[in-house]
Amino acid sequence: MRLGRSAKAAIIGFAVTLGAVACSTGGSTTASAPPSASANGGGGALEKTKLKIATLPAIDSAAIYVAIDQKLFEQEGLDVTPQVVQAAPEAIPMLVNGEIDAMFGNYVSMFQAHDKGAIKIHVLAEGSRAAPDSLSIMALPNSPIKTPKDLAGKTINVNVLHNFQELALTQVLKANNIDPGTIKYVPVTFQNIMASWKSGQIDAAYLGEPLVTAATSSMGARKILDPASGPAAEFPISGYISTQDWYDKNPRTAAAFQRAIHNAAKLMENNREVVAKVLPNFTQIDASTAATVTFPYFSSSDNPVRLQRVADWMWEAKWLGKEIDVKTLMSPTTSG
């Protein structure tokens, strides 16, 4: 695989959220939409038809762009405009102030904001979940780190402290009989991961696609541990939220948005080309890279039991001031 400019672009595209992984290949580049509920779901007129949604320039938020490209929002009577932000916390004040209708972001950041009272959230639709090999703890070819147990006492990068990277890896370390307390996490910007790794500032690198592919191909890096395995299999990473107040005022609009996102995910499950087609539109991942990287799982239904795992692990880690009952923050799945 040629990297060069594509790999550099991929690194930038990865610089907002981790995610990525196996989406099945198949089908043609022309996708037919799955059966959709009638516009508005047969539940009366939509409260709003024009929506502004904050999104991230990362693979994980592809569903909203697929829904636009495949006219799934249009089928639901919605006109959706994405507004790209560089990190989920940036969008939270915009949501509180009513500048946007909803946002896409990682659950850990959003649950933390909810816990602190900065916002009362409502989960409109699940977004992405980690799949096998979507994330990887990697070592350089000459590193003494050969097995997961060799990670004890080592320094590993994260994008920010106390986020989903650390949360998932903690559980996988425990499952491998490694004391998570022995790991030293240091925040490293995505653009600086490779330099920090090569210079020895970190012992092992915590990577997601497309950096896993780039590190393997260009550096001969070795996979040591999959942070999306074992207890963290299908770990929910990101989703779409509004404020509870917005949801209470716009329940039919929220249901229509959810149906479109879920129907986009159904297309994406069986046809990776619909994802690859839109990635260059909102990330700096070019077409050649989009054709080769692995994707995350995209959720075509919502599961409060699955999502509760995130809140429970945050409570266990003492990252929350009180327990969160996730099902109280979610509306029923309205998709077929």
Provide a quick synopsis of the model:
The protein is of the alpha/beta class. The chain has helices at 4-14, 62-69, 72-75, 88-96, 107-115, 164-175, 193-198, 211-219, 244-249, 251-270, 272-282, 287-290, 304-316; strands at 50-55, 79-84, 102-106, 121-129, 135-139, 155-158, 184-187, 205-208, 222-225, 236-243, 297-298.
Structural notes for this entry:
The protein is of the alpha/beta class. 36% of the residues lie in helices and 17% in strands. A 6-stranded mixed β-sheet has the order 2-1-3-10-4-11, with helices on both faces. α2 crosses α10 (251-270) and α10 packs across α11. The protein is globular.
Q: Figure out the total of helices.
A: 13
Largest sheet: 6 strands, mixed
Radius of gyration, Cα only, in angstroms? 19 Å
Quaternary status:
single chain
Termini, distance in Å?
Answer: 39 Å
Strand and helix order: HEHHEHEHEEEHEHEHEEHHHHEH
Q: Roughly what is the average pLDDT, rounded to an integer?
A: 85
Outline type: globular
Q: Could you name the ranges where pLDDT drops below 50 across 5 or more consecutive residues?
A: 1-39
Proportion of helical residues:
25-40%
Amount of beta strand: 15-25%
Broad structural category:
alpha/beta
Strand order of the largest sheet: 2-1-3-10-4-11
Number of strands: 11
